[in-house]
């Protein structure tokens, strides 16, 4: 919901890390801003907007890297797609039905900083939500807001929405500042079981990588502090998914 929390950065790097762990993964851009599409300078007729609008019959995904497929959002066409969703009788379930034929076991969706028909459709489709947060005051309140929106939505769907918040990831922090330390303590106290222990600090390499159309693991051959921090976080996320799956 909140802008600039490193949703896109986390989505790109997590998807890339999974592909490097030799698992097939599909990355979907659902944001009208189309930041992943812009980063990798790839667009395609088979995009999310055209799928929602019923214009695509065969899914043909682009390959961003080995084992990493990509479905762009369609940019501006997402406005039409969103409006279509709000008028269709399927409302919150359309995307889930449309994407049901996808073969990929792992699908990662980058979301827009908004709460709308698209977000609700995505919540009906996914198993897990990861909430990224920047350690400033508005980041904390944005985290609080999205957690209660998800809870309210799930309650309104009377058990039909199976999405669980997998965890809260600190994606940009300056741990030397008092504000960052206070916010981090606040997050740990409020959501002790959800906050990931591996935290991403402010890093120039993380900011630079997209400018070179690279994920953090390929940028400078992965020999950066940013790559090390993202590797730790991605591993922790993957371990938590495996643990959750085992307990189901
Ligand atoms: N740890 C970090 N250190 C430095 N810069 C970062 C870090 N993480 C993300 N950034 C930068 O912060 C900016 C916002 O990140 P990003 O686009 O991933 O956020 P977002 O939540 O997807 O934004 P939006 O809400 O607009 O979609 C980008 O310029 C990104 O490169
Ligand atoms: Mg984004």
Task: Characterize this entry briefly.
By secondary structure, this protein is of the alpha/beta class.
Q: What features would you describe in this structure?
A:
The chain contains ten helices and six strands. The model has no long low-confidence stretch (mean pLDDT 95). The chain has 248 residues and is an alpha/beta fold. Strand 2 (62-65) and strand 3 (68-71) form a beta hairpin. The protein is globular. The protein has a four-stranded mixed sheet. A two-stranded parallel ribbon has the order 5-6. The longest helix has 23 residues, at 225-247. It has one domain (7-247): Rossmann fold. Helix 1 crosses helix 10 (225-247). Bound molecules: adenosine-5'-triphosphate and magnesium ion. Adenosine-5'-triphosphate is lined by residues 3-9, 31, 33, 35, 113, 171-172, 200, 202-203, 206-207, 210. Adenosine-5'-triphosphate binds at residues 3-9, 31, 33, 35, 113, 171-172, 200, 202-203, 206-207, 210.
Helices and strands in order:
Elements (H helix, E strand, L loop, with lengths): L6 H14 L4 E5 L5 H6 L7 H5 L9 E4 L2 E4 L5 H11 L6 H5 L7 E5 L6 H9 L2 E7 L2 H20 L7 E9 L5 H13 L13 H5 L16 H23 L1
Parallel strand pairs: 1-3, 1-4, 5-6
Antiparallel strand pairs: 2-3
The site of magnesium ion (MG) has 5 residues, from helix 1.
Please tell me the overall pLDDT.
95
Largest sheet: 4 strands, mixed
Question: What's the CATH first level?
Answer: Alpha Beta
* N-to-C CA distance: 28 Å
Number of strands: 6
- The string of secondary-structure elements, in order, is HEHHEEHHEHEHEHHH
Shape: globular
Give the second-level CATH assignment, the architecture.
Answer: 3-Layer(aba) Sandwich
Q: Low-confidence spans: pLDDT under 50, at least 5 residues? A: none
Rg over CA atoms, rounded to whole Å, is 18 Å
Strand order of the largest sheet: 2-3-1-4
Can you give the helix content as a percent range?
40-55%
Number of domains: 1
Say which molecules are bound, naming each kind only once. adenosine-5'-triphosphate, magnesium ion
Q: In terms of structural class, how would the helical and strand content be classed?
A: alpha/beta
| Strand residues, percent | 5-15%
CATH topology name, in short, is Rossmann fold
What's the CATH H-level homologous superfamily?
P-loop containing nucleotide triphosphate hydrolases
Figure out the total of helices: 10
């Amino acid at each position: 919901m909140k802008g600039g929390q490193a949703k896109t950065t986390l989505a790109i790097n997590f998807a890339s890390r999974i592909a490097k762990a030799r698992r097939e993964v599909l990355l979907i851009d659902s944001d009208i801003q189309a930041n992943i599409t812009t980063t990798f300078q790839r667009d395609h007729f088979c995009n999310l907007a055209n799928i929602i609008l019923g214009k695509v019959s065969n899914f043909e995904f682009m390959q961003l890297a080995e084992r990493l497929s990509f479905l762009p959002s369609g940019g501006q066409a997402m406005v039409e797609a969103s409006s279509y969703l709000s008028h269709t009788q399927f409302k919150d379930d359309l995307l889930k039905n449309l994407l049901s034929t996808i073969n990929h076991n792992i699908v990662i969706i980058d979301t827009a900083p908004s709460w709308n028909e698209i977000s609700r459709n995505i919540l009906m489709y996914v198993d897990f939500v990861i909430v990224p947060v920047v350690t400033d005051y508005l980041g904390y309140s944005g985290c609080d807001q999205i957690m209660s929106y998800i809870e309210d939505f799930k309650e309104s769907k009377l058990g039909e929405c199976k999405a669980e918040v997998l965890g809260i990831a600190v994606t940009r922090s300056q741990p030397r500042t008092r504000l960052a330390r206070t916010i981090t303590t606040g997050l740990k106290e409020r959501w002790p079981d959800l906050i990931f222990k591996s935290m991403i600090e402010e890093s120039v390499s993380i900011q630079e990588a997209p400018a070179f159309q690279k994920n953090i693991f390929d940028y400078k051959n992965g020999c950066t502090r940013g790559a090390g921090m993202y590797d730790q976080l991605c591993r922790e996320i993957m371990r938590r998914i495996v643990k959750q799956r085992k307990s189901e």
